[in-house]
Design goal:
The protein has 325 residues and is an alpha+beta fold. The protein has three domains: 92 residues, no CATH class; 90 residues, D-Amino Acid Oxidase, Chain A, domain 2, CATH 3.30.9; 69 residues, no CATH class. Helices cover 42% and strands 16% of the residues. Strand 4 and strand 5 form a beta hairpin. Helix 5 runs antiparallel to helix 6 and helix 7 packs across helix 9. The chain binds flavin-adenine dinucleotide (FAD). The site of flavin-adenine dinucleotide has 20 residues, from strand 2, strand 6 and helix 5.
């Protein structure tokens, strides 16, 4: 985790040997999932090419991403993410063998974060923003600049730009970005339902999990295919989803509001990341998707320390401002 002043904190210290954050190349992962579904009896139809056809089905899981057209999901806001896949020299790649970088700062993103993620034989360098979409290329340049020495001489092999669902303005349903996720026998999952978390921007786990949860509700409601499902059967998936994931969504929402809002707050955020208790709480919620019950004494210390960090970071900003006058 790298602060606006380039102060870097290693946040993986509390991970146990079997715990890790996996990095995937989507073209590899998606092909693997498609093939596995096919082997298990699914009929795969390429929807992107060929002529338009009609298919009669009992239920639909709308998993067609952030630009979903499965149902009218209502108004929503979105972040734009820009990513360059960069092939760097093998010796430079060694540095990223076991490491991912997250950069925070107004230069790289005014409201989210920028990243260098390893992708096996190359790196993905990218950034995102909700509030300043028109400046995305400027932020990308700043991100490349911050990682300059580590990606020096790299060759861009692919450029990707994509929307990431965010909360609509004003926000009708507190825990979910999309006003509507269900209509008759169509239920939305993944980005089509807006299941990307704030702060971390994580969406792959939630896409897979929501697809599975929805499918399970259909299997159960149809009594293994003996009965036609209706909206109330699919609604059970939404109820289970809300109950299971509301706390982590809310915590990440608050974290984004508190820590990404200004330079001092981001400095404080990175400083806080050095705290082993913070790391443990963060990874527990990231790896196991639940808000771990904290230790009240540690929570209190954390609150006091956080205020301390914010005060220090604000004082630092004031001193910096004085220097630049
Ligand atoms: C640059 C970037 C970096 C990200 N990094 C991370 C990360 O590090 N970790 C993480 O967890 N998440 C990350 N995310 C978010 C993550 O990619 C999404 O949350 C996740 O892919 C959502 O999965 P999905 O299956 O719902 O949608 P998608 O992955 O968007 O898949 C939707 C699919 O539907 C297909 N489709 C659309 N319309 C139709 C149609 N009419 N007929 C047939 N097919 C159709 C599309 O071609 C696509 O294949 C990132 C997103 C971006 C943009």
């Amino acid at each position: 985790m790298i602060s606006p002043s380039n102060f870097a904190v290693d946040i993986g210290k509390t991970l146990k040997p079997h715990e890790y954050i996996g990095m995937v190349s989507r073209e590899v992962l998606d092909a693997y999932l498609r093939e596995r579904a096919s082997k298990n009896g699914a009929k795969v139809i390429n929807g992107a090419t060929g002529e338009k056809k009609t298919l009669e089905v009992d239920a639909v899981i709308g998993a067609d991403g952030a630009n979903s057209k499965s149902i009218d999901a209502g108004d929503y806001d979105y972040a734009i993410a820009f990513q360059e896949r960069i092939k760097i020299r093998n010796d430079k790649m060694m540095y990223y063998e076991d490491l991912a970088e997250m950069y925070v700062g107004d230069d790289v993103s005014p409201d989210l974060y920028a990243w260098v993620f390893p992708k096996c034989d190359h790196v993905a360098v990218g950034t995102g923003t909700v509030t300043h979409k028109g400046d995305i290329k400027k932020f990308q340049e700043a991100t490349r600049n911050r990682a300059r020495d580590k990606i020096l001489g790299g060759k861009i092999i692919r450029v990707e730009v994509h929307p990431i669902p965010e909360h609509p303005q004003p926000h009708p349903i507190p825990e979910h970005p999309r006003p509507r996720r269900l209509l008759g026998r169509v239920a939305q999952g993944g980005d089509a339902a807006g299941y990307v978390t704030k702060c971390s921007g994580e969406g792959i786990y939630f896409a897979a999990k929501s697809g599975r949860m929805c499918a399970e509700a259909i299997v159960e409601g149809s009594e293994n295919g003996k009965r036609m499902v209706d909206e109330s059967d699919l609604r059970k998936y939404l109820e289970k989803w809300n109950k299971t994931y509301w706390p982590p969504y809310k915590v990440l929402d608050v974290l984004q509001k508190v820590f990404y809002r200004s330079k001092p707050a981001r400095e404080a955020f990175v400083e806080k990341c050095a705290d082993e208790y913070v790391q443990k709480m963060t990874f527990d919620s990231y790896l196991y998707k639940r808000v771990a019950p904290g230790n009240p004494l540690e929570d209190l210390k954390l609150a006091v320390n956080t205020i301390g960090s914010l005060v220090r970071a604000n004082a630092l900003r004031r001193e910096m401002e004085k220097l630049s006058v």
